[in-house]
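Hi W., the magnesium ion complex you wanted:
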Amino acid sequence: MSRDRVRIVEVGPRDGLQSRGTELSVDLRIAWIRQLAAAGLREIEAGAFVRADLVPAMATSEDVFRLAADLKVETLWALIPNLRGFQRASDSGAKAFAFFTSASETFSQKNSGCSVEESLVNFREIRQLSEMSPVRAYLSCSFGCPYEQSVEASAVTNLARKLDAAGADEIVISDTIGIADPESVATIIAAVSAEVTASKLTLHLHDTRGSALDCARAGLEAGIGSFDSSAGGLGGCPFAPGAPGNVATEDLVTLFESLGCRTGIDLDQLIHSSLWLEKVLGEQLPAKSLAERRTEPPSDD
Ligand code: MG
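Structure:
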């Protein structure tokens, strides 16, 4: 493997927290983001500008972005579903935007409230308004949909090509429900790479079947050098029934470093942060790298 460095985008403070019924306070969200940055994570998705009645855990994202401006984070990504979300994020000081659309028509309707084609119209408008700011586009359900089951590879490649043509800086091939396996990762990445240069692709994995690390390795072998993950393996999706946690950042760092790929992340410091988060949440997180470092179980009360 010739690659000696990989990029990791930490999505825990958004994808990790969003599916939780209980909301973490703004102070705790900021404290976590500060710790992640201190552990060497240069890009962090810090919140979502979505409907608070549908995703209450992200309701205070305005405050998080206003306070996070003082943190030393290279890029703070704001998740936005539409123009209104973009405007709220901009007004809160966000300077990097993560848009989402889907390879599945049903998922787009349920997750974004519009058709895939309508979401592309929204994306083009946001791309124009965001001017020089980086904009990444999640291509949800790239490996399968919780409503439509299988998704055609051509639906993924067509949409990736359209997003690229519309000016996406980065396209995030997302296994929203954790249904990918190493073979499907190799197939989809090869198909999309034929349309969009691999350096613009990121792989976003969830660990439903415990195979996310194998999928990450398959992605690396297929030419991907950029990965999303969530510290501790926290995660889920409020509109993807049964979606488990994202692949754990600790576990990705451990895998990549073992393969000779530097991540720039201090694993000890990251694990320390996730153990703090376990205490805050009062539960054990799924990251494999945490198990051996846990000295006492969190209390249940
Ligand atoms: Mg996700």
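The chain has a mean pLDDT of 92.

W.
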